[in-house]
Amino acid sequence: MFGITTSYFLGRMADKFFIKKYGSWIGLDHDRWETIHSYFIRYGKWLLLFGYFIPGVRHFSGLLVGVSRLHYLEFAPFAYSGAIIWASTFLAIGYFFGEHCLDLLHKMDFTFTDIIVSLVVIYSLYLIVKVLLKK
Question: For the chain, which ranges sit under pLDDT 50?
Fold first, then answer.
C-alpha cells in the first residue's frame, strides 16, 4: 500500500513533464502516451484493483494513474482493495499449498542447467513465433 501510494503521488507531481522529457528513453512517445492515457481514463481504477496480479503492471500502475490525474479519493479504494486481495491470495496459496509445493520441488530433480536450458528454449520459441507472426 505504501509503495503504490508513493508512486501515485510521484506521478501526480511529475505529471506530463516527466513523460515529455524522459518518455522517449522508455519508448513512450506522444501517441503511445495518449493511448495509455485514454486507457487509464476508461479502465484505470479497475487496473489498480486487478493490476497487482499482472507482473510489471503492478509496479507502474500507481505512477501512471497519478500522471493521469485520477483523484486520490477514487484511487485509494481501488488501489488498497487490490493490495489486500493480492496479498490475501498469495498468503492463502502459501498457507494451503506451501507444504505440497515444497514436497513436489524436493521430488523433482532439476539442476540449474536444466532450468537455464528450458528458459532459453522457451524464449527461442517465443522469438520464432514472433518473427513468423510478423511475416
Answer: none
pLDDT at 85: 92
CB 23 within 8 A of CB 77: no
Rounded CA-CA distance 32/109 in Å is 45
Q: What is the pLDDT of residue 80?
A: 92
pTM as predicted:
0.61
Give one DSSP letter per residue of the chain, joined into a string.
-HHHHHHHHHHHHHHHHHHHHHGGGGT--HHHHHHHHHHHHHHHHHHHHHGGGSTTHHHHHHHHHHHTT--HHHHHHHHHHHHHHHHHHHHHHHHHHHHHHHHHHHH----HHHHHHHHHHHHHHHHHHHHHHH-
Handedness of CA 11, 17, 19, 25 (dihedral sign): negative
The pLDDT value given to residue 16: 65
Q: What does each C-alpha distance from 127 to 107, 121, 135 come to in angstroms?
A: 32, 10, 13
